[in-house]
Specification:
alpha/beta, Rossmann fold, 11 helices, 8-stranded mixed β-sheet, globular, 40% helix, 280 residues
Amino acid sequence: MLVTEQWLDHQRAKFAPERGTFGAAHLTNYTVDYNVYGSGEPIVLVPGLAGGMGLLGPLAQLLARDFKVITYQLRGEDNCFAVRRPFHLNDLVYDLREFLDVLGVETPTLFGVSFGGAIALEFAARYPGRIGSLIVQGAGSRFQPGLLQQIAGAVLNRFPLPFDSPFVNQFLNLLFGRPEHAGPLLDFVTQQIWSTDQSMMAHRLQLIESFNMCPKLASIRVPSLVLSGSKDVLVPERNLRELCKGLPNGEHVRLPAAGHLAFVTHAEMVSRHVREFLSV
């Protein structure tokens, strides 16, 4: 299951945007790496719990056909020692605000996936005039830890896990929404997810334990799109309904046969719904 350099070179066109501009911006608390692809109206992609902006490559490549797509690394993605200086979810929201200010990006579409969806929702509530529209996938109104998340948080925080451990395999199956056979897609996802240090994954899980958007959803009045995989077992249906009902100007699209990683496994479908939502 290990990804070789030869395989990555062979798959580069499929999983990484063909053209992009790499940059680094100095923020108050860290130097953020980012990539810009394509041209047009801006979409800022907020990465999830693990995998960083690399895991967003397939979706960025598709969206870059019609939009200017900006991906960036969250605080701690490239420096696991960042956890030595305590930071919270609100700090990641402020990081995003500062990042947009440094780049001079005004009223973009903000698109957050999974953990990044929580950041995007908090950002939209705190800075309502800074975005033109909001998209989230793999997120609900609040964090509701299940047995998997509790075990994952405990294990990730204490034990190094090999790529081929049964726990990792089961965790990936739940992310995909189905057992995924060995092949380029599984190898790509595995390699990207485990590029994030386990201690940082555990810290991010702790950050969203108190996440609850229910009192704030009414303040998000920009056009909003909620995408949900029909096989996403990590977002409880109740929390999904609360999110959709609470957004004053929101719409919901169910993605058939997609799991929590729909933005990777069903990138074509996701990009199509984004285009329709933004009327491209």
